[in-house]
Design goal:
With 228 residues, this protein is of the alpha+beta class. It has three helices and twelve strands.
């Protein structure tokens, strides 16, 4: 009996294989790009132990600078698998005025600053600030709330906090709760799982790229063979 060989030209199966391989190639490139970005970020973290933002200046004529609520529940709980600590560094434009920085449950902070003039800082940093008017005078911050973490004193202050479930806010004030302050601040994340995640993404991207290459090359070669 004569042997039969695979037909040349584009069959339905080859077209489907080529289309699947093209999609997988795009996914592979995205995984490799993401893994490469995380690997670069990990090298930056090795220098100081934290991935940090650029330093920005924040000012308020009110009593406090407060972040928008940081929501660490639901899907955001996955963040704690890779990020274990947050660090905030602040320094006052007037070294003679001691600063206070703390992080506390968002509900407690909102009650503390409810009728106080303060400035809220959003996720875009110094390009995302909103004034909240008020006529109240806050108590000195050190004993006003059950702070999860705090730092206070003259000169540069460093606030370090381990991630926990819940809604949280960062607050910066003058230590004596007097109005008006200007500070320079930077935030940083300690992500111990970053190198592992980068390696997993790179490995998955390379493996997927090999599969995509096979799905593209094999049908193209079969389809381009001359007819017997």
């Amino acid at each position: 009996m004569a042997s039969t060989s695979a037909a040349s030209g584009w069959t339905v199966g080859r077209i489907i294989a080529l289309a699947t391989g093209s999609v997988l190639a795009l996914v592979s490139l995205a995984l490799i790009a993401g893994g490469g970005t995380l690997a670069w970020a990990d090298t930056q973290q090795l220098r100081s132990g934290y991935l940090t933002t650029s330093t920005a200046t924040y000012s308020t004529s009110g009593y406090a600078l407060a972040s928008d609520p940081i929501k660490l529940h639901g899907a955001w709980r996955l963040l704690s698998l890779f990020v274990d600590r947050v660090r905030v560094r602040i320094s006052s434009s007037d070294p003679s005025r001691p600063l206070f920085a703390g992080i506390a449950a968002a509900g407690d902070v909102e009650r503390y600053l409810g009728d106080v003039n303060y400035t809220a800082v959003g996720g875009r940093g110094d390009h995302d600030v909103t004034g909240h008017p008020g006529a109240g005078v806050p108590a000195a911050p050190a004993t006003a709330l059950p702070w999860a973490a705090r730092a206070q004193g003259s000169g540069s202050q460093t606030l370090t906090w381990e991630l926990r479930d819940g809604d949280w806010m960062v607050v910066v004030m003058n230590q004596d709760a007097s109005p008006g302050l200007t500070v320079r601040a930077e935030a940083g994340l300690s992500a111990l799982g970053l190198s592992w995640l980068a390696g997993e993404l790179l490995a998955a991207g390379v493996l997927l790229g090999l599969v995509a290459g096979a799905l593209i090359i094999v049908p193209v070669r079969l389809a381009s063979r001359p007819a017997p």
